[in-house]
């Protein structure tokens, strides 16, 4: 079973409740591998997984990274090349003058100045730079995050889609982030790779999330769930709606699977 972190497993104070931790422990005792599938980097995902009891691996960066929590090493890591990425960045700077970028490279998160207007709980990052340039992406990029003060996510995403001639994957994170990922990457791809790595058939997978970047993952799962506070588009395609993140919905989902109220394993 895979769970998103922010807005799903984590409560409104970005912490994991005792109820969720206890349910994860119950699920593991029942023989269920319960892992994180998140937009976060391996660095913060490892910390949250350790506190929560998740593992033994994690899907990070919206599927671009598979992380072994025991050895703190990558299982897979997809990246974007510098030249096509810089082409997108330069075109977006023209189309959206107030755009701000952040570059993620495995465990390094490098934001431009003014990318963050407030502190993000549990997120550590490199010293901000004036502008992301070729020198910052030369070694390949796990994902590129962007935001605009004048445009909402969907409008910025639509502009990005028009100029994305390199077929990078586009998804959404946080409240106002748009994310560019390597070609063909999303959480569904990451979860499929994780299941294969763990020797779990694809038809024995459950997933729960809250946002637009969870749609592919929840859709591919045998049982796909949305927390009650989820984006309406995710709720619409989910098999099950569980209580909100503030009411320990992930814990409820796990408990219902363990009890048989939600049937995951064929009898």
Question: Could you explain how this protein is built, in words?
Answer:
By secondary structure, this protein is an alpha/beta fold. It has 2 domains: 2-77 and 186-259, 3-Layer(aba) Sandwich (Rossmann fold); 82-181, 2-Layer Sandwich (Hypothetical Protein, Haloacid Dehalogenase-like Hydrolase, Chain: A, domain 2), CATH 3.30.1240. 34% of the residues lie in helices and 20% in strands. The protein contains 10 helices and 13 strands. The chain has helices at 5-9, 18-29, 42-52, 82-95, 134-137, 153-163, 187-198, 215-220, 232-237, 249-259; strands at residues 2-3, 35-36, 57-60, 65-68, 73-77, 100-105, 108-111, 143-147, 169-173, 177-181, 206-209, 223-227, 240-242. It has a 5-stranded parallel beta sheet. Helix 9 links the parallel strand 12 (223-227) and strand 13. It starts with a strand and ends in an 8-residue tail after the last helix.
The CATH architecture of the largest domain would be 3-Layer(aba) Sandwich
Strand tally is: 13
Arithmetic mean of pLDDT = 94
N-to-C span = 18 Å
Number of helices: 10
Under the CATH scheme, which class of the largest domain?
A: Alpha Beta
Strand-pairing-aware structural class:
alpha/beta
In the predicted model, the low-confidence regions spanning at least 5 consecutive residues are: none
Assign an overall shape: globular
- Assign the CATH superfamily of the largest domain: HAD superfamily/HAD-like
Quick recap of the structure?
The mean pLDDT is about 95.
């Amino acid at each position: 079973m895979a769970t998103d972190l922010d807005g799903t497993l984590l409560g409104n104070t970005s912490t994991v409740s005792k109820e969720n931790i206890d349910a994860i422990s119950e699920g593991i005792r029942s023989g269920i591998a319960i892992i994180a599938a998140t937009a976060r980097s391996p660095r913060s995902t490892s910390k949250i997984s350790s506190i929560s009891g998740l593992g033994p691996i994690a899907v990070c960066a919206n599927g671009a990274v598979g992380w072994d929590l025991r050895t703190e090493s990558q299982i897979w890591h997809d990246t974007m090349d510098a030249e096509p990425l810089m082409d997108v960045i330069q075109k977006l700077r023209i189309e959206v003058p107030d755009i701000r970028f952040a570059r993620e490279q495995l465990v390094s998160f490098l934001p431009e100045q003014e990318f963050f207007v407030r502190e993000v709980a549990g997120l550590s990052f490199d010293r901000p730079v004036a502008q992301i340039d070729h020198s910052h992406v030369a070694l390949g990029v796990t994902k590129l995050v962007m935001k605009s003060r004048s445009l909402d996510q969907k409008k910025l995403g639509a502009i990005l889609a028009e100029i994305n001639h390199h077929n990078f994957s586009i998804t959404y994170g946080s409240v106002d982030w748009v994310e560019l990922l390597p070609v063909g990457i999303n959480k569904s791809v990451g979860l499929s790779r994780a299941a294969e790595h763990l020797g779990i058939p694809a038809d024995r997978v459950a997933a729960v999330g809250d946002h637009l970047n969870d749609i592919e993952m929840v859709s591919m799962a045998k049982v796909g769930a949305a927390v009650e506070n989820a984006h309406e588009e995710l709720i619409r395609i989910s098999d099950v709606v569980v209580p909100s993140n503030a009411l320990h919905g992930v814990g409820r989902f796990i408990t219902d699977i363990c009890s048989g109220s939600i049937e995951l394993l064929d009898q």
